Each structure stands twice: as C-alpha cells, then as structure tokens.
Amino acid sequence: MPSVFVELGSSSYSIDIAWQGLGGLGERLQKMSFNPTALVVTNPLINRHYGHTVLQSLQAAGFRTVIAEIPAGEEIKTLRTAMGLYDRAVELGLDRRSPIFALGGGVVGDITGFIAATYMRGIPFIQLPTTLLAQVDSSVGGKVAVNHPQGKNLIGAFYQPKLVLIDPATLETLPVREWLSGLAEVIKYGVIRDESLFDLLSGTELAALRQDKASLMKIIQKSCAIKAEVVAADEKETGLRMILNFGHTIGHAIESAGAYTKYTHGEAVAIGMAGAAKLAWRIGWCGERVCNAIEKTILRYGLPVRFSGLDTSLVEGRLYHDKKKEGDKIRWVLPKGIGTVDMTTDVPGSAVRAVLAELAG
Ligand SMILES: NC(=O)c1ccc[n+]([C@@H]2O[C@H](COP(=O)([O-])OP(=O)(O)OC[C@H]3O[C@@H](n4cnc5c(N)ncnc54)[C@H](O)[C@@H]3O)[C@@H](O)[C@H]2O)c1
Ligand SMILES: [Zn+2]
Q1: How large is the average pLDDT for residues 147-170?
Q2: Which atom of ligand 1 is least distant from the CA of 132?
Q3: Which pLDDT value is given to residue 323?
Q4: Does one domain contain both 121 and 58?
Q5: Is residue 186 domain-shared with residue 159, that is, in the same domain?
Q6: pLDDT tens across 256-315, in order?
Q7: Is the torsion defined by CA of 109, 115, 121, 125 positive or negative?
C-alpha cells in the first residue's frame, strides 16, 4: 500500500492511500493504543455511502463507535455546530485517548479537527477524506478551523492528525464539480514542485482519470508527498508553506468579489494560477511557454482561465485586503518554470492591474 510520511518529530504521521481502504480502518488502528470509544463525524450523504463500512470496521476491531451527522455545506462550519459536537463528545464520555474521525470533505475535516484540537485540550484525530480536495489538500497539514461571520477559518489551530487514511474508491460517487475543485489544487502542486505531475495531468483528462485507478492513485500520492514535504519544512506557515498559496492570491480576490457564489474555490484558483503565470511573464520570471502550458492544462479539465461579470476594480480592491499580504505589499507566489516557484513582494501595481484587465478580457 502506498503511503506518505509527514515528518514532524513527535507529531509525525502517516498518510495511507489504499483503494477500498476504509474497510481496513479498524485493523490499521490496532497498534495505535486508543481507548475503545470512538466518535465518527460525517454528513448524511457521506454516511449513507460510507458510514456502514467505517462502522463495521471499527466495531470489528473492538471500538464502541457512534456516528454523529452534521449537515452538509460550508455554512455549518461554525462554533454553533462545534458546540453540538462537544455535547456528543461529553455524552459519550470521550477522554483524552478516545479517537475522533472525520469522514468527509474539507468541511467535515476542518470542524472535526477543531473539536479534536480543543476538546479536553486535544484528543486523537483521524482523517478519512472523501473528496479529492480533502485527499490532496485539506486533510494533510494540520490546519483546523471554523468560520466567523467576518471571515472564513478565523477561529482555528494547527493540530496534526494521528493518521490520514485515503480511500480513493470513495471518489466514485463524487460529483464532477467537486472533482474539479480538487484538480485545481493538483495542478497547483505540479506547477510549484513537480514537473512530472504536471506532465501527467497535461496528458490526461477528467473522464480518463476517473477510469484510471493507477493514475489517480499516483496523482494523490504525489500531491500528498508535496504537501507533506512543505508542511514538514514549515508547519506553521512562516516561510516555505506560503508557496501553497500559488494561484490563491488572485483566486481569493475573485471568490470574494463574486460573493463566494459566482466561482467555486477551484475555479477561482484556476483563474488565479493563470493570472500568477501572466504576472511572472510580465516581470520576466518565466517565458510565454510556461504561461501557455499552465493555461492549456487548466482548460483541459474545463476549469476557467478568465473571469467575467466581475468589476476589475472590485477584484483589485479585494486583492489588497487579502490576509496573506505583508504590510501593504502582497506576497506573490510566481512560477519561474513548471515545477519551480518563488516568492516576491516586489511586483509593480501597474503589472497587477494589467494582468487583471487581461483576466477580465
Ligand atoms: N485545512 C486545510 O488545510 C484546508 C485546505 C483547503 C480547504 N479547506 C477547507 O475545506 C473546505 C472545502 O472542502 P471540500 O471541497 O472537500 O468541500 P465539502 O467538504 O463541502 O464537500 C463538498 C461536497 O461533496 C460532498 N461529498 C463529500 N465526499 C463525497 C463523496 N465521496 N461522494 C459524494 N459526495 C461527496 C459533500 O457532502 C459536500 O456536499 C472549505 O471549508 C475549506 O476552507 C481546508
Ligand atoms: Zn485552495
């Protein structure tokens, strides 16, 4: 079974990637010395698809297991939902060695991780990601959070899981729009760190990938390996980890200007990556070939490289409100080639404006 190790000293953990791996969960935990009361957090749809497999596997391994459902959707990632889960944890008598499992996408993962980090000052947390985005991005790296009315992920912590178990077979039920969300992040990894991953993506397409277990396993493994390496080097995001924001600077501005309804996160990041490449070209960091290759690969998956119906000056305004800025300067992550990015705060406003105008064109 392929696995990736996240090297973080005493907080190190393994990311196991196994087709139909959810059925082997209980057995995988045997050597981890947890207490036998377990709480699984999920949503009704995911529970219907995969809850039974997880429950059976945990019960067969001797865990007294309870499944707690929370509704689907970003809007439930709140302290109020968290409170309901704390209530369940108290009722069940979870203690500091009782594991809590996140079975679902990034929403379930982030809120469950937040509970794990805070209930009794921290209990063992296991990620069972079921969206491509969660499998390649949100389940790895230990960022856990809930939203505040004034901003996404404003209340959170760094809290690493004890194990991430990825079962790519769960993607068989994932809607296309959710696949694209994850694929935008996978394209990101290719551009920032791995030309062979980028080439693999450039040579296939979504329909083929959904049929091709081997390639799918490979892109998940390569993505996790990149995230693991970056997180191991910079767990708390003071330096290198910021390269994971490639495409997200313009992306967040577009998401926000579109009131989080016009573009999905993946679509906005796709446009943001095309924009970052154009900016790199303008300031002489890369050639036109790099810009074209990035755009071509994004378009191959039906993701956008331009925005429409948004006022460019509104997008520009949101850009300068992004929390990743440094003083009043934005910290840009820009490509120098496929597989290599660097960071700079030294990009003229005029170049940014010109690129936004091109993206709106
Ligand atoms: N912690 C991090 O490092 C990090 C990184 C990126 C994003 N995030 C967070 O992740 C969240 C987005 O995650 P997401 O894109 O996974 O969205 P999501 O969790 O909302 O899941 C998307 C939809 O897919 C459904 N779904 C999940 N698995 C399925 C399956 N196997 N089959 C069918 N349907 C399935 C869900 O019910 C949901 O409706 C955001 O809250 C974002 O802030 C966190
Ligand atoms: Zn993202």
Answers
A1: 96
A2: 16
A3: 47
A4: yes
A5: no
A6: 999 999 999 999 999 999 999 999 999 999 999 999 999 999 999 999 999 999 999 999
A7: negative
Angle at 176 between CA 170 and CA 180, to 5 degrees: 95
Ligand 1 neighbours, Cβ below 6 Å, are: 43, 45-46, 49, 72, 74, 77, 104-108, 110, 130-131, 133-134, 137-138, 141, 143, 152-153, 170, 173-174, 178, 181
Same domain as 345, residue 197: yes
pLDDT tens-place string over residues 70-118: 999 999 999 999 999 999 999 999 999 999 999 999 999 999 999 999 9
Domain that holds residue 224: 176-360
Question: What's the whole-number average pLDDT of the chain?
Answer: 96
* Claim to verify: residue 185 and residue 234 sit in the same structural domain: yes
Residues 112-153 pLDDT 10s: 999 999 999 999 999 999 999 999 999 999 999 999 998 899
Model confidence, pTM:
0.97
CA 66, CA 21: separation in Å to the nearest integer? 20
Among the bound ligands, the one closest to the CA of 154: 1
| CATH for 121 | 3.40.50.1970
Tally of domains in the chain? 2
